[in-house]
Amino acid sequence: MEKLVRVCHVEELEHDKPRCYRVENMDIFIVRHWANIYALENRCGHAGAPLHRGEYTDGLIVCALHGAAYRVESGEVEWEAILPPPMSEYSKSENPRIRLFGELLEATETLPIKSFPVTVQDDVVYITLPY
Ligand code: FES
Question: The whole model's pTM is what?
Answer without folding.
Answer: 0.91
